[in-house]
Write a structure and sequence with these properties.
The chain folds into 2 domains: about 45 residues, no CATH class; about 40 residues. Helix 4 packs across helix 6 and helix 5 crosses helix 6. About 60% of the residues lie in helices and about 5% in strands. The chain is mainly α. The protein is built from 6 helices and 2 strands; from the N terminus they run E-H-E-H-H-H-H-H. Strand 1, helix 1 and strand 2 form a beta-alpha-beta unit. It is elongated and about 45 Å long. Strands 1-2 form a two-stranded parallel sheet.
């Protein structure tokens, strides 16, 4: 998996599936549930979603906060970054997938 993620489950998974994931991670193995794996494969193959895979981890963080309605100043304060840095990351996160502010 990319971006340092060791395991993924879906909120639609049964608790037994979540437990298998936790046990797998405790054994230092990677784990992807069936539901999460199907969703990840769909995300990677649908062209509308594929463009988001080009974003860096930091750009994804800033984008998530932006989608939650946080301002640049609020995001900068929350992430312990300068406002100029957050503003640049937001701009690049909009430019890369083809969006413009």
């Amino acid at each position: 998996m990319q971006r340092g993620i060791a395991g993924v489950v879906s909120k639609r998974d049964e608790m037994s599936e979540v437990l298998r994931g936790v046990q797998s991670l405790a054994g230092e193995n990677r784990y992807v549930s069936t539901i999460a794996g199907t969703a990840l494969r769909s995300f990677s193959t649908v062209l509308e979603f594929r463009r988001f895979t080009a974003l860096t981890r930091r750009q994804l963080e800033v984008t998530g906060l932006m989608l939650c309605g946080l301002s640049v100043a609020e995001s900068a304060r929350l992430l312990h970054r300068r406002m100029n840095t957050v503003s640049a990351q937001r701009t690049e996160a909009c430019r890369r997938p083809g969006f413009f502010r």
